[in-house]
Each structure stands twice: as C-alpha cells, then as structure tokens.
Amino acid sequence: MPSFWERWMPDEYVASVHDIDLDRLHRQGRRLILCDLDNTLVPWNDPQVPEALRAWIRRGQALGFSFCIVSNNRGPRVSRFAKESGLPHIAAARKPKPAAFQEAMRRFDARPEETVMVGDQLFTDVRGGNRCGLHTILVLPIHRREWWGTKVLRIAERFVLNRLRGRGLRAPERQAGQAERSGQDWLRDRS
Fold first, then answer.
1. Is the peptide bond before 88 cis (omega within 30 degrees of 0)?
2. What is 5-190's CATH topology?
3. Nearest to 107 by CA among 27, 30, 26, 34
4. Which of 12, 21, 122, 179 could be a cystine partner for 137, CB 3.0 to 4.6 Å?
5. How far is CA 92 from the centre of its chain?
6. Which tens digits make up the pLDDT trace of 45-94?
7. Residue 179 CB: number of other CB atoms within 10 A?
8. Pairing between β-strand 135-139 and β-strand 32-35 as defined by DSSP bridges
9. 68: DSSP letter
C-alpha cells in the first residue's frame, strides 16, 4: 500500500505536453495516453485546437499511441473540443474516481501498465491515475484562468507539491507566460 505522499506523486513532472518524451513512453510499452482537457491541452474553456497540439497528437499516433480525453468538465464543452481535435473522450469523468480511467482502458483494450494519464492537477488527474496503477505525468497549467473550484483546490495542491518536492519531485522550468501553480493568486485577486 502506498504511503500518504506516494498517492499524490506523479511519475513525471514536465512543463507541458510538448515536453513529454513520447519515444521513451513507447519504448516502455505505453500505448494509451489519457489527457485532461482544460489547462492541460488548452487553456480553460478554450474551444480552439492549436496546430502545435495537433502536431503533438499526430506524432504520438504515428508512434502507435491512442489518445482519449478524460475530463471532469461537462459533456457539451468536451464534445465540441473532441470533435474539433478528432479525439475520443469521456466527459463528466468524476476524477479521481477510477470509473472513467477504467472505461477508457476498456475502450482501447489497454492494461494499466500500458496507459498514461496526463493532467495539470494532483487531486484529480494524478491521484486518479495513481489509484488505477497508471503512469502519471503532471504538467504545469497552461493559463491562470480556470474554474473557481480549481482555484480553491490549487491552495491545497501547493501545500502537497511542496511536500512532494521535499520527497524528490523536481519542478519543471516554467516557460514564459505559463501560469503559476498556486491558488494564492486567486485569494490575492479576491481581496
């Protein structure tokens, strides 16, 4: 049974999806990449699919990866983005509960050791992926703008991230314009 802190520890921590070493994941036998949507693939509620993201997906598909969006956001927002990106999806996933992760693996006939979960939140993406035995990759959020509930969770997330850093988690270099990983910005903006 994992320790309390191991439950939250991602296997990797990178600045963005573009920093994920797809070749290495492929060599490790990974075949399915589950991706959170908001602030992982695109800024929160952004309907556009950037060309750089399309190129990243095409590169992964050329290596043999399947992709599936797994989002806690509602169906219409996720469906629109999924249609535009050409990716299958699971909306209203209720992460970190395991059901959506398990459903995605069933759809693609993938085992946990073949599956990767990529997301910007410890309490939903990483915790849910870890509960299911997936390889988890935490990315920095793309933008500061996000749902108010996520902003509140970022406060607790910052505390946990600081503890994980004390246990060996190395934070990636932040790129120009990337959001800070802190709910304290939200609190400061509200005062």
1. no
2. Rossmann fold (3.40.50)
3. 34
4. 12
5. 15
6. 788 899 999 999 999 999 999 999 999 998 899 999 999 999 999 999 99
7. 19
8. unpaired
9. E
